[in-house]
Sequence to fold (150 residues):
Amino acid sequence: MSTALHGLSNPTRQPADEPEGSLPGLNATVERRGNAAIVHVHGEVDAYTLPTWRKLLREVVTATVAPGSIVIDTGGLGFMACRSMLALAEEAEACRLRNVRLCVVGSPLVVTRIVALLDLEALQPIYASVEDALAGSVPSGGSLGGRVAG
Fold:
C-alpha cells in the first residue's frame, strides 16, 4: 500500500479571519490498494477550493485505468458545496464511460443529503465505509431519497 500526500491548500492566499499558521482549504491523501485509488479528503470544498478539487479529481481519474476503482472518502470534510458534488458527478460519469468504478464514502447528513437534493444518480449509492465501497456492497437502506450502502 502506498500513499501520497497532496497539500492542496494555497497558504499564500490566507483569509483574514484565519489564525496565523493555519492552512485553510483542501488537503488529500491518495492511498493505493491494488488497482484501487482511495482519496481521503480533509478540509472544505467551497468556491475557494473548487478549482483545486477539480484538479485533484482529474489527476486521480486520469491515473486510474480500467478496471480500476476510485473511492472518494469525504469523511474528513467539514463542508461540501453543491458545485463540488456536481464536479464529482461529472467525473463519475467520465469514469463509467471508461469502465472505471468511482465510489463515494460519506456521511448521510452531509453527502447523501446533497446527492439526494441534486438527484445525482451517478454518485449513488453512497457507502458508509471505504471497505464497503471497495467490496462493492449492495445498498441496504435509504436516506433522504438517496441510497446508502453499508
Summary: The helical segments are 50-63, 82-97, 108-118, 130-135. The first helix runs from residue 50 to 63. The radius of gyration is 15 Å. The chain has four helices and eight strands.
